[in-house]
Amino acid sequence: MQKRYLLLCGLILFGIMKLGETPEGGRGVAPPSSTVSSQSAPAKLATDQPSKLPPPSTAIIRSTPVPPAQNTERAEPKFVRGNSVALRQAPNAKANILDRLNMGKRVMVLAHEGQWSRVKDDLTQRVGWVASRFLSDDEPVAKREAPEVKETVEVKPKISPSIIIQRIIAESIAGYPGTCACPYSTDRRGHKCGSRSAYSKPGGYAPICFAGDVTRSMIEAYN
Q1: Do the Cβ atoms of 139 and 79 come closer than 8 Å?
Q2: Which domains does the chain have, with CATH numbers?
Q3: Integer Cα distance of 214 and 211 in angstroms
Q4: pLDDT tens digit string along 51-76?
Q5: Do residues 200 and 145 make contact, with C-beta atoms less than 8 angstroms apart?
Q6: Is residue 30 predicted with pLDDT exceeding 70?
Q7: β-bridge mates for residue 76, sequence order
Q8: Which long-range contacts (CB under 8 A, 24 or more apart) does 6-14 make?
Q9: Which pTM value belongs to this model?
Q10: Average model confidence (pLDDT) for the chain?
Q11: Which of 26, 102, 185, 208 is 20 to 30 A from 133 (CA-CA)?
């Protein structure tokens, strides 16, 4: 009987101890440490204070635009005083030849570089470089007197564009020193030049061989 009593008392005490324990899910959360708020307070005060740094400068530095370089030289007329003078692609004696200019050809000088002059052919409107020693301010006497004689004899009629085109082609071919100026030309043996012609080879002479090569500006300049 005494054993049963002791066992019952032990069960009661065990139950009381179990009831006195706080459940794991019900444990209280510790209040935040006061040190955290004390440390965050100065940071908040620091952000509330206005910044003492000087505001960024709003001044805009405007650079004065430099005007592009302009060629102050004016185009002036000159006359070729040599035979078959080379019109080159660059101011160099080894540069590609664009055309050949005959004696008395009138050109417009656009610029100068050393002993070279950049010119524009009045007839073909081609632009290239010619050695300045082959240019003259005065028109050759033979070239200057011929139109005066024609004007005293007859009135020059207006030439049709088709005839002008034929003349421009003929003059261009005549200025070529060889026989194979155009693809339809024939060499000294009577063979057709074809791809061996100067017209078909880039970088050298550039004769005018076909009506499609003649521009409106060439026709107007011829008149």
Answers
A1: yes
A2: 81-136 (2.30.30.40), 157-222 (no CATH)
A3: 6
A4: 455 555 444 445 455 444 444 456 78
A5: no
A6: no
A7: 109
A8: none
A9: 0.35
A10: 74
A11: 208
